[in-house]
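Reopening this one. Same input as before:
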Amino acid sequence: MSERLRVRVLLLVGDEAEIVTPHRGQTEPERVPVDRLVEETGIARESLAGARLVAVVGDDGGLERFERA
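Same output, byte for byte:
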């Protein structure tokens, strides 16, 4: 079964977004391609910074997909 986590897009760095999760804070954020977040959530690139999302975590612990919170 997949776990769902509330996450926040901290900021954008080039083509990557830094994601803060309950397991990874501001000093060690998860990095995710911006294009992936735009495609999966429908949120425009210019609106991503600060966005609150839900991440679906797979059985292997990886972030499988993102949804609007």
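So the earlier flakiness isn't reproducible anymore. For the record, The beta strands are 3-13, 16-20, 30-33, 52-57, 63-68.
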